[in-house]
Write a structure and sequence with these properties.
heterodimer, A: 292 residues, mainly beta, twelve-stranded antiparallel barrel, 3 helices, 11% helix, B: 174 residues, mainly alpha
């Protein structure tokens, strides 16, 4: 509740400030950034790759503009599926606020957990990201990357259930720092994210378990710009392995992102999510993003 | 718990810094001199079609700019032939064509025009279209853009500098 009001207040305040400062040349919502340089929406709603957040601020708003987008993602593996929808707003290439709702259809996994087939768990994630230094696109002659810090505040709607499975809580917050560098002359983007988390399977299976501590996890992305509109890449994401009942492994993917225009992009990926409760899960991911 | 509070405090104070220091990132680098020569053997210059190729690209660039309402107003029509010639010279120098840029300092030319980051990117897009139409490969385009990108620091208007487009009100003489 407090989070929503705070977000609304920041949005209204920032919009008012921006509207006052917007001059001739281009409009406040004019999508000034170059194609693909806002990333796509990752599963928890922040701008980045498909699996991991990047330092870039989402949307196409340049440093005097506001941008935003909405996304819908489906990920299907052998034993379960995930659907995520969400939205983000990027303010002046400096602050990003996001919301995403993930619905996990546990399908066969819920049978393995003794819950019957097709149990659904929802996770709501509020995200905030602040760019500290750097501009991945413009700082071509510097060694430093674009660096941002962020938080993802997650609430699982089946707290009692996940606690019964061994999690300590149905709520948790991930904190992360991301460093993104675009080597434009080589058409290559690299990102490293360091995340402090206690989320089990992104939060689907609650937070904490055997330990009551946060874990430091490493995530990485590499993307190659094949054309102005198409990027291909790979990502890797470690996860804490904290639930006795459900051994958890790292996730990785190979993706293709196609920016049809600045308003629409599609991402397809082949995903390996590591062990989820019973066995290794792999499958496909499709995401559609619309915005400005 | 303690760690979370500390991190929340850090994030909060960083947020305050972020909002109160909008040019923080831009001020980290010193102003660059002219863009470096990235292809000393001239192979990139040949990929751009040499002198004639660059002339065609800059002609197409200004066709694109004139049709681009975002940035067309920045260019005085009678100065365009000179600007084109200077762009050809500058790109020739960068791509190893053996030219020497003889135009004015980039900061002096651009710094007071009130150019926003979005305007800079708009010109990049118009240039990309012109290069693509003249069959320059994306890799060659990106090598040039990588060399030109740091000039954004002196081209994009920095707050605090007087903007001649909307000059401040005249103060009475003492």
């Amino acid at each position: 509740m407090l989070n929503r009001k705070w977000i609304a207040a920041v949005c209204v305040g920032a919009l008012a400030a921006g509207a006052a400062g917007a001059t001739r040349a281009q409009s406040l919502f004019g999508s000034g950034k170059l194609l693909l340089t806002g990333g796509v929406s990752q599963v928890e709603g922040s701008a980045g790759g498909g699996l991991t957040p990047w330092a870039v601020i989402g949307g196409y708003g340049s440093s005097d503009q506001i941008g935003g987008n909405v996304f819908a993602t489906s990920l299907v593996t052998q034993d379960y599926s995930l659907h995520a929808t969400g939205a983000l707003v990027g303010f002046y290439d400096r602050v990003e606020l996001s919301y995403a709702r993930q619905t996990f259809d546990l399908r066969n996994v819920s049978t393995a957990l003794g819950l019957g087939y097709g149990y659904r768990i929802n996770v709501n994630t509020f995200g905030a990201k602040v760019r500290l230094i750097g501009n991945a696109v413009l700082d071509q002659d510097e060694w430093w990357p674009e660096v941002s810090v962020g938080a993802q505040m997650k609430t699982n709607d089946h707290a009692a259930l996940v606690e019964a499975l061994g999690a300590r809580s149905g709520k948790g917050t991930d904190y992360y720092v991301s460093a993104t560098k675009l080597y434009l002359a080589q058409s290559l983007l690299l990102n490293v994210t360091l995340r402090e988390t206690r989320a089990n399977q992104f939060g689907i299976l609650g937070f904490g378990g055997r330990s009551d501590a946060d874990h430091a996890e490493v995530e990485g992305s590499a993307a190659y710009l094949l054309t102005r509109q198409i990027a291909v890449g790979a990502e890797y994401r470690q996860k804490p392995d904290d639930l006795a009942v459900a051994h958890e492994g790292s996730a990785s993917d190979l993706f293709v992102a196609y920016a049809v225009t600045k308003n629409v992009s599609v991402t397809l990926a082949s995903v390996d999510l590591g062990n989820i409760v019973t066995r290794k899960q792999s499958g496909f991911y499709a995401s559609l993003q619309a915005g400005f | 718990m303690k760690t979370h509070r500390l991190m929340a405090l850090c994030a909060g104070s960083l947020l305050i810094v972020a909002f109160t220091a909008p040019v923080f990132a831009g001020d980290l680098s010193p102003t660059p001199p002219n863009a470096p020569v990235i292809s000393p053997d001239g192979s990139l210059y040949r990929e751009f079609g040499g002198h004639d190729g660059l002339v065609r690209i800059m002609d197409d660039l200004f066709v694109n700019i004139n049709a681009d309402s975002r940035i067309a107003p920045f260019f005085e029509p009678k100065t365009i032939p000179h600007i084109k010639a200077m762009l050809v010279e500058q790109v020739c120098e960068i791509t190893g064509g053996g030219c020497t840029y003889s135009g004015r300092d980039m900061a002096k030319v651009h710094g007071q025009l009130g150019i926003k980051q979005a305007d800079f990117f708009a010109l990049v897009e118009d240039l990309q279209k012109a290069m693509t139409a003249n069959h320059v490969s994306m890799q060659a385009q990106d090598r040039l853009l990588a060399a030109l990108a740091p000039q954004s620091r002196v081209i994009i208007y920095k707050p605090g500098t007087p903007d001649p487009i909307t000059p401040p009100p005249a103060t009475p003489a003492q």
